[in-house]
Amino acid sequence: MFSVDMVDAVKVQFLKPIFEDDFPERGMKAWLTRIEKCEKTECFKLYFDFKDFEDENDKYFTEEYYPNIHTKEKVKNGEIPEKQLYTAKEAGMYKPKYNSYFGSIDNSDYQNMEELKEYLRII
Fold first, then answer.
1. Residue 28 sits in which domain range?
2. What is the pTM of this model?
3. What is the arithmetic mean of pLDDT over 23-28?
4. Is 18 a domain residue?
5. Residue 14 located in a structural domain
């Protein structure tokens, strides 16, 4: 069970992305290191650490980022080929330490924690 009072990190797997535009993809693993309650709304800030699972998670990155300053520099340096779309890692959007907001102001804390089970599962 997910809880704001979590003391120890738990290993989780993403069942679906929390936000459409964020890099975590279905199947990726991470440590959920902390859940912090937002001060003024019924939401939570979730803290993740992907570092221990980087090699395993590489297969889940999809090419959905348009060229940007990071990809252009990497192409110029010969690190990656030029293409129409890039992965979050190639586009500089991936960070091993990641946080995200979760929850609805229409839900109670309990409802938000229950809904989180649709996005993450403890493994």
1. 10-62+95-122
2. 0.84
3. 94
4. yes
5. yes
